[in-house]
Amino acid sequence: MALDLGLGGKVAIISGGSEGLGRAAAERLAREGAKVTICARRKDVLEAAAAGIKEATGNEVLAVSADATRTADIENVVRATVERWGGVDILLNNAGTSAAAAFEKVDDDTWHEDFELKVMGAIRFCRLAIPQMKKRGGGRIVNVTTVGGKAPAPRSLPTSVSRAAGINLTKSLAHEYAADKILVNTICIGLVRSAQIDRRAKEGAYRFGCAAQDCAHRHAVEAAAWRSFGRVSIQMSIHPDDGQIGMNAVEKVNNGNIDGTIATGRQDSLRL
């Protein structure tokens, strides 16, 4: 007998929903009967993801092309969702890229771009979604950050700083909106096998003259050296097709009173 997670009819917005963790979470939510909106910058990839999810689940997904650094685009996503589905119950802030470099290599433009995407993008989505959640008597927000926001490795800028801001944002919103029954949590992911990581592995192969698989392995080995700082450990090499990371968080906060939590993983073996 299947477990009813209570997600049927809930309305979810997922940024960065065309690939990887975001797409996997969208498919799992759709399977549970949620009404899902996904957004991302590349319209062709986004629409292909929506079609694939509909084929896999039988449920339609609203795809809205958007750049999470643009306020007008975010407003359009929330407006289209409310017009189509009637409100917002769940927000998964998943938009982001893996930008990591040595401190002296990161210029002002790179700092600003990273904060606009990962911090201001999440803030703007929350600012628009929270009033909708209040109207419906509560909601759930899950911010995707990284373990680097808790225990940064060398040459992990600007991502480790912007993700630390995301963790702080999560705690702040959790305290402020608990009385409104809006629960806010973050998932501190490690290395997730996704199209983005695959592309970066291929770029590394070109630069360093190694096979893409070897470059991905090198990335994982370096990350492993920085695991287990107190309560924080690195959850790496998760395959988003398993669909567990984002959904586990949504399931837990939807069925309990978990709020302001930083969910981290454990060391795992590399999966390619």
How many individual domains? 1
Largest sheet: 7 strands, parallel
| Spatial separation of the terminal alpha carbons | 33 Å
Report the portion of residues in β strands: 15-25%
- SSE class: alpha/beta
Total strands: 9
What characteristic shape results from the CA principal axes? Answer: globular
What would you report as the Rg, rounded to the nearest angstrom? 18 Å
Average pLDDT, all residues:
82
In the CATH hierarchy, the third-tier topology is known as Rossmann fold
Q: Unreliable segments (pLDDT under 50, ≥5 consecutive)?
A: 221-243, 265-272
Topology as a string of helices (H) and strands (E): EHEHEHEEHEEHEHHHE
CATH architectural grouping: 3-Layer(aba) Sandwich
CATH C-level class is: Alpha Beta
| CATH 4th-level superfamily | NAD(P)-binding Rossmann-like Domain
Helix content: 40-55%
Q: For the largest sheet, list the strands in their spatial order.
A: 3-2-1-4-6-8-9
Total helix count? 8
What is the structure about, briefly put?
The chain is an alpha/beta fold. It contains 8 helices and 9 strands.
How would you characterize this protein structure?
The protein has 272 residues and is of the alpha/beta class. It has one domain (11-194, 239-264): Rossmann fold. The protein is 46% helix and 16% strand. The protein contains 8 helices and 9 strands. The chain has helices at 20-31, 43-57, 71-85, 108-135, 159-177, 195-208, 212-224, 245-254; strands spanning 11-15, 35-40, 61-65, 90-93, 100-101, 139-146, 157-158, 182-189, 262-264. A 7-stranded parallel β-sheet has the order 3-2-1-4-6-8-9, sandwiched between helices. A two-stranded antiparallel ribbon has the order 5-7. Helix 1 (20-31) links the parallel strand 1 and strand 2 (35-40). Helix 1 (20-31) packs parallel to helix 2, helix 3 (71-85) packs parallel to helix 4 (108-135) and helix 6 (195-208) packs across helix 7. It starts with 10 loop residues before the first strand and ends in an 8-residue tail after the last strand. The relative contact order is 0.14.
